[in-house]
Amino acid sequence: MAYFDCDGCQLHYEEYGQGAPLLLVHGLGSSTRDWEYQIPTLAARYRVVALDLRGHGRSDKPRERYSIAGFAEDVAALIEHLQLGKVHLVGISMGGMIGFQLGVDRPELLRSLCIVNSAPEVKARRPRDYLEIAKRWSLSRLLSLDTIAKGLGRLLFPRPEQAELRRKIEERWPRNDKRAYLASLDAIIGWGVRERLARITCPTLVISADRDYTPVAQKQAYVDEMLDARLLVIENSRHATPLDQPQCFNSSLLAFLDEVEGAAPPHHKDP
Fold it and tell me: Which UniProt keywords apply (predicted)?
């Protein structure tokens, strides 16, 4: 367990393994534990760094407005603090948004990008979008974290054999700081960098569950706008793909990373 100071905010991170640096960025209301089924497999071949974003997990929860750009600055600060150089970044949901933000603001920090069940913007384009966003914003404020946890558990893991995953959500979600959780949700709504996607030049893998909140076609549309991106659909999965399809997710991610590493120029050591 390690911490570093970023503008007076103590951020918690964990490190495992050795090799090329691989940074894992969790989603809204979660923590490093988003990646419990990935870290052992990935750390066998990579130097894995997982952090708790500000307002989440074991990191500080300052009483302030949060922003996706601010989260991305925290990630950049961690990369520089650990002197990682270019990293492979994997982000799920809000973590994917942070990946997009870092990609357009600091492309020199990325060796590759893996975006999981996410998007480069959360903007209302149609009347239905406004209703969905308003509903989520309102319910998050009205309902207790316990109630949200139970609903999320049923939504993300509906199958009988997923009882253990439901239990994990129901146990972990209520540990969130409600104010920090709402500030993070507010950071997402209205955010977007879609018009700057061309700035992301590193190899990018977009992973979409077949039953994610947003349709696969929506992901394909933004993948088509990127220079070096591809879409992979994982079947029989919902929004928490690394948890509900860990083997398929891990093997797909490793195949992509190995391909990128194979294409990397050899590291020449100074004589």
Answer: Hydrolase
Question: For residue 182, is it within any domain?
Answer: no
In b/e form, how buried is each residue of 57-71, taking b as 16+ CB within 10 angstroms? Answer: bebbbeeeebbbebb
Nearest C-alpha neighbor of 61 from the set 187, 181, 175? 181
Amino acid at 186: D
pLDDT higher than threshold 60 for residue 204: yes
Domain span at residue 89 reads: 2-124+193-263
Look at residue 235 and tell me if it is in a domain. yes
3-state secondary structure of 9: strand
Whether residue 39 contacts residue 48, with contact meaning beta carbons closer than 8 Å, is answered with yes
Strand partners, 205: 114, 230
As a whole number of angstroms, the distance between CA 32 and CA 56 comes to 9
Would you tell me how many other CB atoms lie within 10 Å of the CB of residue 73? 18
pLDDT in tens, 77-129: 999 999 999 999 999 999 999 999 999 999 999 999 999 999 999 998 888 88
264 pLDDT band (50/70/90 cuts)? low
